[in-house]
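Why does residue order matter? Because the sequence determines the fold. Keep that principle in mind as you read this record.
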Amino acid sequence: MRRVTPLEGEEAHHRALESLYATAPINGLFESELEIVAPGVSRIRFTLDERHFHAAGAAHGTGYFKMLDDAAFYAANSLVTDRFLLTTAFNLLFTRPLGAGPVVAEGRWISGKRRVYVADARLVDASGEEVARGTGTFMRSRIPLATLPGYRAA
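Structure:
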């Protein structure tokens, strides 16, 4: 019989962040799944459809922001085990329109290890083309991660 051991440390924190993402009410509007790949690195797979489009038939900028902000945020929060981070600023660069289908947001921590963190993210469409990029700053909040109902190890 194989013995199952509970997750500990960094791995437990990463799985708990994935759970937190999955339970956030906003994610009911976006078919998506978060993976913390490594400390400071996240990947979110999204599926876009016509509900996310503007009047000209492509993904609205709010969707780009959501995907980029989430990927950068979780890359940064993967390094913080006690507090929820808050986005304080985010800059976007749109390079191509997105239609319906799969898209991947890849987030990466850049700097900061105390109070303010900087992370960037990029969106890649189904053909492998980068369609947008963003950089954000994130600040430690007073909200303990352990008090958030969705934050739990799998």
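The mean pLDDT is 94.
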